[in-house]
Amino acid sequence: DSGVTQTPKHLITATGQRVTLRCSPRSGDLSVYWYQQSLDQGLQFLIQYYNGEERAKGNILERFSAQQFPDLHSELNLSSLELGDSALYFCASSDGTTWDTQYFGPGTRLTVL
Amino acid sequence: QQQVKQSPQSLIVQKGGISIINCAYENTAFDYFPWYQQFPGKGPALLIAIRPDVSEKKEGRFTISFNKSAKQFSLHIMDSQPGDSATYFCAASGTGGGNKLTFGTGTQLKVEL
Known about the structure:
- The structure holds 2 protein chains of 2 kinds.
- Helices cover 0% and strands 53% of the residues of chain A.
- Chain A is mainly β.
- The radius of gyration of chain A is 13 Å and the shape is globular.
- Chain B is an all-beta fold.
- The interface between A and B is medium-sized, with 28 and 25 residues.
């Protein structure tokens, strides 16, 4: 158990809908990362937050957004969902220092029908 | 543009044998190279990591070899066991990128009895 929790574990929804994925980092970790894992794209970095502020952005679509709250939990919002958004979404947390280890949560499996 | 190339895509090793997975990177700003292990239905878990100031790091049966001039690094699993059967990902990050991880495409390892 990495100490990172993600909810829900599974999510099934329809095209055009909006969903919110939630992540609670390990106790004491200030940095949260979101990654998408799909068969064709592999594991791809989406976005990072550090202590409430956006720190780095990767291949995140404009339909996707994220935020980190004062209690350090983070939410990833996916809107206008398309079939191709079906994937595993992982949250990882770290203490935010240089060369810090990222600990991954169990993931949320999103299926868009 | 894929910045971390990983091979082989899949690997079958006999119990007690040595598993070797190779990765090559392009971005010379990378300065942290972790390996993650992922079991089906689970999030990636850090196995071992190396920084470019050393050429080798060993932890138990797992060894990373690093060749800075060739921009290559590899994972060796000695005395491979059936419990090692999983997908292995190499990754890289640089301090200039907010520590986001760029992953290889993964190697599916199967250790047979």
